[in-house]
Design goal:
By secondary structure, the chain is of the alpha/beta class. Helix content is 38%, strand content 13%.
């Protein structure tokens, strides 16, 4: 048995060893700063920490506020001024000149020429049917067209069977229509312009249907205007349907002598088949008269490369006069086809061919030169004019240069 004394010393040794080990661990931890005794705890920062903060202050993290959206700039609107209506000068800026008057004309070979044989070109406007829109064919309106727009040609379109036509609406109607024609001829003469008296067949298709009336009419007209160098006679507007060149020749061979027997110097326009678009038939068998020209009509929105090619085949071989054309569709509607119109314009200039645009009226259609809501017959502003009219003003201006 172990004595009690020995046990005592053994236990004491164990406690001493334990105290030594625990004391060593605490000592090492304290030396390294790992232990803080209760008496060392303070509510503030240590001196070292305070010094560190003073030397290297931590940059505050500032959160930028999103930039507010910029309000739309407030533009103070000035009181609306009354828009000044475009003045007549606006039109003159586009036309910028007046086309020449050439005196008496005649036909040589394929050209319309003056008394010295110099080729000339007429550029003008066709009325709509004077049966329906006589208000645009007055002395004032024609003078205005000459002075303000510069044209040197006016075509008086008189329907034969449509819209109270000359041949279907009675004697009183005939008298009224002839008064309108007389007004136009006198105004053109006074203003140094040329004027076409147009026997405007349309739905009567074949000019032979009213041939006796045509003979009577042109006999009366030529006796009245004999020797008037301003007057040109168009004896059939647009033969159509199944009307052939042979039909037209038969008609022309009877009507032309009525005119030339009174006034041999008169220039006469003859329509061609298919709405005045078939010159090939004429080329194969032309009429045997002097001072004759053959009409060709086109509408740029409908008639394009194929028609221009056919036109070119004949334009240098025949005396051709474009007594009616439009920049819209052939039915008179639609918008202006500027690219195709430009090509036609260049072709007419190339062959020095005279032309008249359709039509001077305020009819509600694309080919009318005056807008439908305009009731004026003179003193037009740009706002009064259709797109076709404004485009055509550039043609007139260039022709006048």
């Amino acid at each position: 048995m172990v004595s009690r004394k020995r046990k005592f010393w053994t236990v004491l040794l164990i406690f001493l060893l334990a105290a030594l080990i625990v004391g060593g661990v605490f000592g090492i931890s304290y030396y390294k700063g790992g232990v803080t005794f209760p008496w060392e705890v303070t509510t503030g920062q240590s001196e070292d920490e305070t010094s560190q903060v003073a030397q290297e202050p931590e940059e505050p993290v500032v959160q930028e506020k999103p930039e507010p959206a910029k309000p739309e700039p407030v533009v103070e609107q000035e009181p609306e001024e009354e828009k000044e209506e475009p003045r007549e000068e606006n039109l003159q800026m586009l036309t910028s000149g007046k086309l020449d008057y050439f005196g008496p004309l005649h036909v040589e070979d394929t050209k319309l020429v003056d008394k010295n044989g110099k080729p000339v070109r007429l550029v003008g406007i066709s009325s709509h049917g004077i049966n329906e829109f006589p208000q645009f064919v007055t002395a004032e309106s024609i003078k205005y067209l000459r002075e303000s727009l510069g044209i040197n040609l006016f075509r008086v379109a008189m329907y034969t069977s449509d819209y109270n036509g000359y041949c279907v609406a009675g004697d009183d109607n005939k008298k009224e229509l002839k008064k309108v024609i007389d007004t136009a001829v006198n105004a053109a003469t006074e203003n140094d312009m040329y004027v076409i008296i147009d026997w405007h067949i349309l739905f009567d298709n074949n000019p032979n249907e009213y041939k006796s009336e045509a003979i009577q009419f042109f006999g009366e007209m030529v006796r009245k205007y004999k020797g008037n160098e301003h007057v040109i006679y168009e004896i059939c507007n647009e033969p159509n349907g199944d009307t052939t060149w042979e039909d037209i020749k038969q008609y022309a061979n009877e009507v032309i002598p009525v005119i030339q027997s009174v006034d041999p110097a008169a220039v006469i326009l003859v329509g061609t088949p298919s709405w005045s678009s078939d010159l090939h038939s004429v080329l194969a068998d032309p009429l045997e008269f002097d001072n004759i020209m053959y009409t060709y009509h086109f509408y740029a929105g409908t008639h394009k490369a194929t028609q221009r090619e056919a036109f070119s085949d004949c334009a240098g071989e025949l005396p051709v006069f474009v007594s009616e054309f439009g920049m819209v569709n052939a039915d008179g509607n639609g918008g202006v086809n500027k690219p195709e119109s430009k090509k036609w314009k260049e072709l007419l200039e190339e062959y020095n061919i005279s032309c008249a645009v359709w039509n001077l009226s305020n009819k509600d259609e694309g080919s009318a030169l005056i807008k439908a809501d305009c009731t004026k017959t003179t003193d037009f502003t740009l706002e009064d004019l259709s797109d076709e009219a404004i485009e055509y003003l550039t043609w007139i201006s260039e022709a006048a240069e």
